[in-house]
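User: Round two. Same drill as before: sequence, then structure, for each protein.

Assistant: Same drill it is. First protein:
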Amino acid sequence: MVILCFGVYLVAGREVLADTNLVNKQSWVVDGTDDTNANAANISMSVNGHAAGSFSKLVLSYDVGGSGVVTVCTMTGAGEIRMALPPPGEFGGSFFLTSYWDCNAGFIPGMTFTDLDIRQKGGNKGLLEFKGKISNQVSMASKGFTMTFLPPQTDSFRAELKYSLLATTDFCVDQATHTNSDDFQVARMTSNYIDPNVQQNDETRFVKIVSKTCFFYGCVTKTKTYCTNLVNQDEFLIEDPPRLGGGTVWLMHTQPLPQATPSLLLRFSSPGKSRIRPQGLVAASADTNAQNVSFWGDWIDARASYRNKKRIGKFSYTLEVDSPKALSCDFDF
């Protein structure tokens, strides 16, 4: 049997040859298409439990204000998530899921999407939910991944993620990178910074506890906000990274120039803020398309080794993009 769907042939084996519409109901539209990057990986898709084909890229659009659908997010099978605000906002940096440094194999990139089912919740203008499986194809996987997109607003757009990771083989976490809080990244953001005139984001931001005094009835905690202006040179952004004093790390865009690319935020729920250290890295580059800036939350409690089929941890956090604007800072690193 061959079905013609928006000019695309869908065969009985469910292999999809080009763009296919997966969801077009109420305010959300989801299309499956091809990722043209060299590391493209397919996602086995279903909609409400019904097989819908295999794609290496998903394009999410939303009808903002009833004026017609606009693209607000792309997801690749390789694990890259890019989110944008409705116009005049633009796409900027990217989000990636959990990754780590292996003591034998080096850096193991973030989790890839392998199987996803799409469901809409909450009726018109409701939530868009993806449930399924993720894997880094090497050592970790989850069969209970959930990612829920909330309706985009004019100045913010976010997605909530939850998953538990299991080891799929024996592996070890490189303790040599622990000092710089670059051994087990719960999630990370990447972006471009070449100079003030060529950049998507220009500052990192996080909250640090500066004092904590405890009494028999509780504790009094004082926090300060720390920021780092990006420069195009090889460096870790934070020396002796502290534990987070607030659950959010920001990769800021402090002004809507040279383009109105958004600020990127990671809000950590599990592990909690006291179990996360912020860290970032810049790789000097002259490539205006390079994602040469990374900023992430590193998991303090990651163990030195894990055994096959054993639980690694439960992870819950929010990805968010906000309109570019300057926020106050108490100190600069």
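Second protein:
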Amino acid sequence: MKCRELLEPGAAACVECGTRVGQTADGANGTATQTHPGGVPIHANRNTLTYHEDRNSRSFEASLTDSAMHGLGDVFGELFAQRRVGRTILPGGQRTFVKDIALDQTKQLQSPRPEAEQQQQEQSTQQTENTPTIEPAKERLLKIFNLEGQVLELSDDRLKAKSAADYYKRLTYLFLYAQEVLLGRTTTPRSELSVVLTAAKVNNGNCRFWLGKKVGFTVDDEDRMKLVVGSREQAIKTVGEILDNNVADEWHPDTRTVRARGPRKKK
């Protein structure tokens, strides 16, 4: 109350002038006063400044004497004027500065997410990254073939073929194409194709004769088969027809009809 300095929290006396809390300048209890030159009393008014800002927040509070405000008034006035702060004068001489501006939402900090929600989002992102994605070609072929280790088996034998010859041609190209896509093989042993053709009940003399022509594929010295570009495109087209319910399945090994032989010609 004597020197107008701020007291330390819980202080019994001022560290600047030694006056005890509640004691006037002359040692008696009462209200301390200061005087202008000429003896005009100055009441001990305190000036309270409050500054607030949103997301996620910033605040400023100060309690200053008139003399301090006189020295810092211009500084605070310019500071708050730049930030578009209004001033309200309260009863008793207190002044409260309140920030009232429209914040640019595009430059604001994101509101902190709850920790549980953040962890759940991170786990979901990590799970998505670790989940292997199946390419469309693989997904489509796995509806026609079963993959057991390194062995392919025909699971859907409805190849939408028009005849027996069309059936074993389609199956040959499909199998070699599936070896490339599902197993990453550029060549396939002919013995593995023979197993699939036999299981499909089409590995007969006509099929073996057609395979000997090497139409749509090449065979190397180790009897390994490789598709050419044209037959690979036919295999891709066949996959689309097999998975299209609007395409009729005209010929199937289990429903084929055996034509009776005609009478022998007499010599």
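Residues 85 and 99 are 4 Å apart (CA to CA).

User: Perfect.
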